[in-house]
Queue: 2 jobs
Job 1
Amino acid sequence: MAGRPLHLGAFLMESGHHVAAWRSPHVPARAGLDFGLYRQVAQTAERALFDAVFVADSVAVEEGPGAERISRSARFEPLTLLSALAAVTDRIGLIATVTATYNEPYHVARKFASLDHLSGGRAGWNLVTSDNASEAGNFGRDQHVGHADRYARAQEFLEVVQGLWDSWADDAFVNDRDSGLYYRPEGRRVLAHEGPHFKVRGPLNVARSPQGQPVIVQAGASEAGRSLAARSAELVFTAQPTLSAAQAFYADLKDRAEAAGRSRDAIKILPGAYVIVGESRAEAEDKQAALQALIDPVAAVGLVSRMIGNFDLSGYALDEPLPELPLTDSGQRSRQQLLTSLARDGQLTLRQLAMKVAGGRGHLSLVGSATDVADALQAWFEQGAADGFNLMPPTLPGGLDDFARLVVPELQRRGLFRTRYEGRTLREHLGLARPAWRGAVA
Ligand SMILES: Cc1cc2nc3c(=O)[nH]c(=O)nc-3n(C[C@H](O)[C@H](O)[C@H](O)COP(=O)(O)O)c2cc1C
């Protein structure tokens, strides 16, 4: 590609991103555990030349009022799903969300290194700290870990994982039948990490993986989230509702990366984009109206309750303004601020906010023709707001099919998006350098 390349992730959510997608007659029943559907959509995204598929996660079911009315409590574990998808795709990147809060670094390092080998260098780790407070109960705790502690643990967790990924030189395993030497001892690195949260000796029992290190993705946008991303993330997934908010976030994160001694280009920023596209603007608006008509207010208010930081809003009047809420400690601070501003600036009632958030959850939301959608994406891409987008299809498979059929060719016509894969690994798709081995530790 001649110009700066635009990157696309396909964010695969069971049924699709609209909270009522599972009620649509065009969405397969039990989509969250339908491997055939995932295979189909991953292959669609690969034919459309997306950089990666992206899978979010929680290690608990959704709880609270309305949880029984949404489709998020029966889903595949992401690394298992992506390992299966690795076998039915060739080129597309595979990004799994895995929490640093309820996990051990050795397990996580090993699983992502395995996925990188299985897929020939297509693995990415979306490091999160858990925004679902119910996870605590599944890991021996009564209370969720607080925001600051989650991030302190996450920073050290990441250092350990990256250290373990450097357990072996790229050419450590010589497999020399004649001499009988299986690996070169000087190509082995013993991490011997000891810190406030972890004591991990290493080495990892997986050879250095095709990408050297899987790609590090990060999705928190609070102060602590940004500083973690600036130091370590190579791809950032973010929720931005407007061009000006996205521009401010983009400039801030690139500045912080530079201040941390990194190049601005070493960190790619992909806002989510919730897109309903039709052959015409009217057709897209009809699709949007059909989905909105399926919304159950109890489910929609439940979604806002969780997205706004795990506060139960079910007892509040639907047609009154959103109540004042304290700063969340268990949830996403950045999303709490985003949704609170949306409600305040638009003078929305709780019902109106819930209806608005039911599709794109506060992300850039577009409803229109291919030209409308491409115009908006191009403006964000060219005006300092994005290096690409994590596409959030409203329904699966239809919402992704529509984008692949209508918007991708329009982006290609404009010279913004690739017309073939030039690389084989996720790093190559994203234009990210392959990290050098850090050498043996004495
Ligand atoms: C766009 C976006 C997507 C996120 N996806 C997940 C997710 O899939 N699972 C999860 O546990 N946390 C997720 N998070 C939460 C964060 O990663 C983070 O670990 C934490 O909950 C705090 O976010 P904050 O830094 O914005 O406060 C996401 C956050 C953002 C902004």
Job 2
Amino acid sequence: MNRVIMLIAAQLALFVLPAAAMAKERIPDPAKGWDAHFILLMVISVFVYLVVTIPLLYFVIKYRRRKGNEVGAYIEGNVGLEVTWTVIPLILIALIGVHSWALFNDYRTVPKDCFEAKVIAQQFSYEMISPEGIRTVNELRVPVGPVKLNLTSKDVIHSFAVPQFRVREDMVPGRETYLWFNAKDPGTYEVFCSQYCGTGHSQMLAKVTVLKKEDYDAWVKQNTSEAAASLPPEEQGKKLFESLGCIGCHSVTGDKSIGPTVKGLFGNKTALTDGTEVVVDEAFIKEKVKNPKEKVAKDYQLMMQPNNVMDTDLNAIVAYVKTLK
Ligand SMILES: [Cu+2]
């Protein structure tokens, strides 16, 4: 019986709130649900605040002590009043409870036939892998519709947050987590890392680009055929520099970042923390990728992890770095 009352109350809440719209759609939109939930909490809180504060102020003034030894009247109690102030909050709390539960259910239940991609975080970038196997860095491309993201991390705990979709989920090394959102409108949506993960945390930005189905298909076609054709080493190197996450810490534009920029680096001398200088040549770059602990650049902290990169890929990276004059 109580359950029936709660369900009726929840239905009423859904009816009066914008969330009503989501009940009609086949695929729910938790982003709207969160907004509705916020409004529900706000309305209830303001209502309770006013119901308590206005009479309080009134009584404080009306029943203030006026003369020396005035004593207040003894009041037995009032059954009607007590039942009212128990039942009304009970209904309000039940309403919040049922609405939260329904929303949480939508938020964590991935719709069928969802577009599914993978995101791997590392200090301080994201690698996105489309269902077709296309790898991108700091930009996720998805078609319009529900999207599920499988998340993980290579190093520390990061958190994938897209405020406009009202989603956030931790990215934990050695574990796969997930989130889903309903990308209804084409456009660009910002991604933030919302778990402090190191000095480059605030630069750990990315975007989700929602494309019309046909635009997405065109992008896939373009990138898979391009990948099939063998690229010149510099271009391969550029892709590796991005997909391996090097670009997260080493800019190619000359800007100072977590690590030194690679622009204008090749063939020049660079200062190290131990006070010596070294010429950046092929051997140095290759050694540095594999074993970053040695020969740290002056004014920088060692943040880099050793990378197990194939020799052919290393050659491609060197070829790319050479082009950045
Ligand atoms: Cu992070």
